[in-house]
Design goal:
Length: 429
């Protein structure tokens, strides 16, 4: 009896020891560390500039290095069209147009269209989505003369015969000369012309209306980079290029009999796919925006040579506190702290809940249990971050579209200093 009992006790002890060892092995390690030199320097610059509220920062050196990199990758084979919605700030667009030697912009809404036409009279604009005809009418109503000539510098995007007929009626009614680009579906399935029959109906409308001038096509191919297998990506790219080729041939034959594609814009690509076009296919320009500031959704193999150039910086309001769950469930917080050293401390920051993730100091994350807040977001960490009240936490946006517009003027940093403030475009749909 004695012996049996002892053996059971030994087995139990060994079992408990094993469970303990296993628990220790999987128990989260301390992931925290203080700011790297880059972010320590940025913090210093923000403090010196008297910034103490959430701010969107652009690192001008990285921005320009990205622009130069894209230019050298494209190597003059294709012109680049900057995607304005992903870079919603006039001085930012100015910098990039200058660095990349392009005046081509892709626009997605009426306010930017009006702003660009009024403020930058020499740009070449292509709509990136088809707008209701009433919006086009409003654009012409609001146009105040000036250098910008829509009949030469603007291409409306049209996706269906019905919309094309509406644009035709507007052109006739207002005696406008309008240039139209045809949105084609090259595989993304986000709308656009998806059969030669539909294309033919649209070509017939274009052919019969002298007020409408065919300016080219837009075939966005973002899906190509998102497919899970290399073989699927390769096939989707081949298909997209073939579809583009066929529609372009059909339209050119119908509308330019005997003539070439002179002056036509065949737009393709976006940040994740700009490298897949080299001028040898039908596409004769590529669009690109987000990659130039490289939010984290653009951490792809093809964009590896570009660096993040936009961050959100926000001050810590409350530090030096153990993480606690609210009264009533405090035990939950105690358990979490006992288990995970990375949930030991809580920092409450100024603002939060953005489309962005904390990146410096490292090892900060929202609690899975304590709610998120746009007012004072809780971030948990081990304490190795060494954050004090009024120190900064830096977030990396997941996308630039819309996020860049949530913080007032953009804070431009260069050489470890805040050098400029750039007003953003008003956040408009
Ligand atoms: C028509 C079109 N082209 C290109 C882009 C690429 O923009 P980005 O380079 O910012 O991803 C977009 C983005 O939505 C788009 O809608």
């Amino acid at each position: 009896m004695m012996v049996a009992l002892k053996r059971r006790a030994v087995i139990t002890a060994i079992g408990a020891g094993l469970v303990g060892a296993a628990a220790l092995a999987v128990r989260p390690r301390n992931k925290g560390a203080p700011h790297s030199e880059y972010f320590a320097r940025a913090s210093k610059a923000l403090r010196a500039a008297g910034i103490a509220t959430p701010a969107l920062i652009i690192d001008r050196e990285r921005l320009l290095a990205n622009a130069n990199k894209v230019v050298s990758n494209v190597a003059g084979r294709l012109p680049v069209r900057l995607v304005a919605k992903s870079l919603p700030c006039l001085p930012l667009i100015d910098q990039l147009m200058q660095a990349m030697q392009t005046r081509r912009l892709m626009v997605f809404n009426l306010p930017y269209l009006q702003e660009l036409a009024a403020q930058r009279g020499d740009v070449d604009l292509l709509l990136g989505k088809p707008l209701p005809v009433a919006v086009a009418a409003e654009f012409y109503r609001s146009l105040k003369g000036g250098q910008f000539q829509p009949g030469r510098q603007l291409q409306w995007l049209v996706d269906t015969p019905q919309r094309l007929a509406q644009y035709r009626d507007l052109a006739r009614g207002q005696q406008l000369d309008m240039r139209v680009s045809l949105e084609i579906d090259v595989g993304l399935h986000r709308g656009g012309i998806d059969s030669p029959q539909v294309m033919q109906q649209m070509l017939d409308i274009l052919k019969s209306e002298p007020r409408l001038q065919w300016a080219g096509m837009m075939g966005y191919d973002a899906h190509v980079s998102k497919l899970p297998l290399a073989s699927l990506r390769e096939k989707a790219l081949v298909d997209a290029k073939a579809i583009y080729h066929d529609y372009a041939a059909q339209a050119t034959q119908a509308l330019r009999p005997g003539g070439g594609a002179e002056g036509l814009v065949f737009n393709a690509g976006g940040s994740p796919t700009y490298l897949l076009h080299d001028g040898s296919g039908t596409a004769n320009e590529v669009a690109l925006g987000s990659a130039l500031v490289k939010p984290s959704d653009f951490d792809t193999e093809g964009l590896k040579d570009l660096a993040p150039a936009a961050y959100i910086a926000t001050p810590v309001l409350k530090a030096g506190r153990h993480f606690q769950m609210p009264r009533g469930v405090e035990a939950l917080g105690d358990a979490v702290r006992a288990w995970d050293v990375n949930q030991e401390q809580v920092y409450f920051i100024y603002g939060g809940n953005w489309m962005a993730d904390a990146v410096s100091p490292v090892g900060l994350a929202p609690s899975g249990l304590y709610g998120n807040s746009s007012n004072q977001q809780a971030l948990l960490g081990s304490g190795a971050q060494q954050l004090l009240v009024d120190d900064f936490v830096f977030f990396r946006p997941r996308q630039s579209e819309s996020v860049l517009q949530q913080f007032g003027d953009i804070v431009v940093m260069e050489g470890g200093n805040v050098t400029e403030r750039w007003p953003v475009m008003p956040p408009m749909p």
